[in-house]
Structures are given as C-alpha cells and as structure tokens.
Amino acid sequence: MKTWIGGAAAAGIGVAGTAALVVSSLAGPSAQAAVAVVLAAAAGIGWPYFLGIPAKKTNGTILALAGAAAGISAAAVAGPEYLFWTPAAIAFGLMAVTVVQLIRGTGQSHRLESALGASTGVLLCCLGAGWIATARLTGTGSMLIVAGISTAVALLVGAINWPDTIIAPLAVVFAGLAAPLAALVMTDISVIPATVAGALIGAVLAAVRRLNRTRSRPMPPAGLMALALAPVLAVGSLAYFIDKLLLY
User: From residue 47, how far is each of 58, 61, 170, 247 by CA, in Å?
Assistant: First the structure.
C-alpha cells in the first residue's frame, strides 16, 4: 500500500473513530465506554502488526485488554478522578508484556524492541479512557467537542500528500484555529484554552503521521487500523488533562 493511500485511509478511520467517541457520549458513559473498548481492541490487536514485532497475537491481546479495562473503569469510577484506575491498567499491561518476553526466553529475536513497542501500545490504548473522563468531567458539550473537531481537522490535513515539513505546521495551525472556533460556536470554553488544546492535538497527530511515513515495509490492514486509532485514543487523555488544568 502506497504511503499516501495508507495515510488517507488512516485519516478516514481516525475521523470515524473520533466521531464515534464524541457522538456516543450523548448516550452516557456506558455507551461511550463500549465504543472506547472496541476502538482500543482494534488499536491494540493491530499495534504489533504496525510495528512488526514478534508475538503479535499475545501482545495484541494484552494491549486490547488493558485498553478495555481503562475505558470501563473510567465509565464506572466515581468522580471527580475519572482516570483513577487508568495507571493500574497501564501498569498491569506493562507487566504482562514484560512477562511475555521473559517466557519467550533468552536468544529470541527482537525481545527489547518487542517489549518497548508493546509498552508504547499499552499506554496509547489505555489513554483512550480520557475521552470518557472528559465527557464526565465537564459535560459532552465542552472540551469533548473541541478535542473532537481539532482531531478531525488535524487528521484531514495529515491526509494531504505533501511533505512533513509543510503538513506538520499546517496541522498545528489548522487544529489550533478550529478549536477556538468550535469553542466560540458550540461551547462556553474561552479562546486561549481551546487554542492550546487544538495546537497540542495537531502536534501529536502530526508526529504520528511522521512516524508512519518513515516506514519502508508494507502496512498490513491490522497495522493500518492501529495507526489510525492509537493517536486518536491518546488525544482523549490529552484533552482531559488540559480540561482539568485550564478549565476545571
């Protein structure tokens, strides 16, 4: 699959995943958690294929379960610390991927790369709980809308087949402009926090786009799914902490 085709497909999947997370929040934390679990499972199972690390099925299962646990706990825990159990989910995921490498034994190929890559996947999948936490913290019409629109704009800009030196600044600028516009029209969030959130989201997604374009081997479908959804999940916790630091 050509890089630009894969990038465009990943952008479409990412936008669809973002829309699902935002829209499902209208039906309550349980519905949003169900969507987050599905997306975390898709990203977790596909992440080892994206990185090309060994023990793909085992590592993918661990990532999916860790992300699901974080999402469910964010929907179930009493507030205001909605991510209270997320560090525990991350810790258990990290321990599990380490145990997998120990079981594989000395002399197996790419043990260090597999452990580090799977650990990164655990973190990204678990950070998806931030979408649920954001919706529960200040309501579905506040930072959740701003983060969703900024994410969609940055992903669509990233789908353009231009060099990273052009697209990265454009993603940051357009996401940073879309966020305050969305805040003014749809929410009561002030311009400065919204702009900060949009610019940071654009920077994160531009960095992931760069990671994809450094690949030289073909992208399997499962890996493409992970590429599309993992950064979207990570944006959820970014929005949550910006919400707590600047607004709540």
Answer: 11, 10, 27, 33
**pLDDT tens digit sequence for 88-141:** 999 999 999 999 988 887 666 677 888 999 999 999 999 999 999 999 987 766
In which element (H, E) is residue 86 found? helix 86-104
Which two three-digit tokens encode residue 26? Answer: 């209208």
Burial of 112 (0-12, 13-18, 19+ CB in 10 A): exposed
Cis peptide before 80 (omega within 30 of 0): yes
Measured between its terminal Cα atoms, the distance across the chain in Å is: 44
If one counts the domains in the chain, the total is 1
CB 243 within 8 A of CB 137: yes
pLDDT digits (tens, 9 = 90+) for 183-238: 888 888 888 889 999 999 999 999 888 877 766 667 789 999 999 999 999 999 99
Give the domain range for residue 212.
3-246
Question: Residue 106 region, left (φ>0) first, then alpha (ψ -120 to 50), else beta?
Answer: beta
Tokens of 130: 């931030």
Q: Could you tell me where the DSSP H helices lie in 105-163? A: 111-127, 129-138, 143-158
Tokens found for residue 9: 């497909």
Whole-angstrom distance, CA of residue 26 vs CA of residue 32 = 8
What is the Cα 73 distance to its own chain's centre? 17
- What's the rounded Cα separation, in Å, for the pair 170 and 87? 33
Distance, CA of 151 to CA of 224 (rounded, Å): 18
Tracing tokens 């959130």 back to the chain, one arrives at: 197
Task: Copy the structure tokens of residue 162.
Answer: 């231009």
Rounded distance, CA 142 to CA 186, Å? Answer: 8
